């Protein structure tokens, strides 16, 4: 039998397997409310599988033609760079924070799994899917528990434009062993009121400081009108 011919049953099995493996990764992303979830990962994995199938088996009629050289990787080779455009759409930057990198990586891996299934490399596809689920779910819990030392937050503090307020806030943070990694100040005028808007990027120590308590203490500082916080 020609290596460039595949039966309809085998083709169906590979596509269904691709749907299953892509769905497993997508389900984990969906549960965590990520930009690309269940359906997106399924489509990426299925599309990659189909392109691999077309690349290997779609031109079987030309396999025996004299002077024709078959290259099963010609279409599949375009999948990986192409998936970068889709992954870039899941990466968002908001001030000092960047989100979506893990989801972009999971889409890239889903496309690689689809290519493996399309090529009939089932063991590798199953093994990588298991490793991906392990890293996304179990290692995520390990990271939160044992690698929580890098706790970075961004605060937006509105204060009355008067001497001493910023110094009081800085002293409060220093007493909590909180490092200010970046800060910017801008003036805001509303009618007769002149306030300062302070943007601070803070790094908290592993223990001894909770951001909620810090925000409450800053809000009690005389001259502070509001405090907004977001995690990075």
Structure description:
- The chain has 232 residues and is of the alpha+beta class.
- It is 50% helix and 21% strand.
- The protein contains 7 helices and 6 strands, in the order H-H-H-E-E-H-H-E-H-E-E-H-E.
- The strands form 2 sheets. It has a 4-stranded antiparallel beta sheet with strand order 4-5-3-6, with helices on one face.
- Helix 3 packs antiparallel against helix 4.
- It starts with 7 loop residues before the first helix and ends with a strand.
Question: Any descriptors?
Answer:
elongated, 232 residues, 4-stranded antiparallel β-sheet, alpha+beta, 7 helices, 6 strands
Strand content: 15-25%
- Provide the helix percentage: 40-55%
Q: Report mean pLDDT, rounded to a whole number.
A: 81
Q: How would you write the strand order of the largest sheet?
A: 4-5-3-6
Low-pLDDT runs of 5+ residues are: none
- Total strands: 6
User: How far apart are the first and last residues' alpha carbons, in Å?
Assistant: 56 Å
Rg result: 26 Å
**Secondary-structure content class:** alpha+beta
Biggest sheet overview: 4 strands, antiparallel
The number of distinct helices, counting runs of at least 4 residues, comes to: 7
Shape: elongated
Order of secondary-structure elements: HHHEEHHEHEEHE
């Amino acid at each position: 039998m020609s290596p460039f011919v595949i039966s309809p049953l085998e083709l169906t099995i590979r596509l269904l397997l691709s749907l299953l493996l892509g769905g497993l990764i997508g389900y984990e992303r969906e549960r965590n409310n990520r930009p690309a979830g269940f359906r997106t990962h399924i489509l990426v994995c299925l599309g990659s599988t189909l392109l691999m199938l077309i690349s290997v088996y779609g031109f079987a009629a030309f396999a025996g033609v004299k002077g024709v050289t078959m290259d099963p990787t010609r279409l599949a080779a375009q999948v990986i760079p192409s998936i970068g455009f889709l992954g870039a759409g899941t990466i968002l930057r908001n001030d000092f924070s960047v989100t979506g990198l893990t989801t972009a990586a999971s889409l890239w891996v889903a496309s690689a799994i689809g290519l493996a299934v399309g090529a009939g490399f089932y063991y590798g596809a199953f093994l990588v899917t298991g490793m991906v689920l392990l890293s996304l779910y179990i290692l995520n819990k390990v990271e939160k528990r044992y690698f929580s030392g890098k706790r970075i937050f961004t605060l937006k503090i509105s204060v009355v434009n008067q001497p001493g307020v910023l110094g009081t806030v800085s002293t409060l943070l220093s007493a909590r062993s909180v490092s200010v990694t970046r800060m910017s100040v801008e003036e805001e005028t509303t009618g007769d009121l002149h306030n300062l808007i302070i943007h601070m990027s803070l790094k908290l120590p592993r223990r001894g400081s909770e951001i909620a308590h810090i925000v409450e203490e800053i809000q009690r500082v005389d001259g502070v009108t509001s405090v907004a916080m977001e995690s990075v």
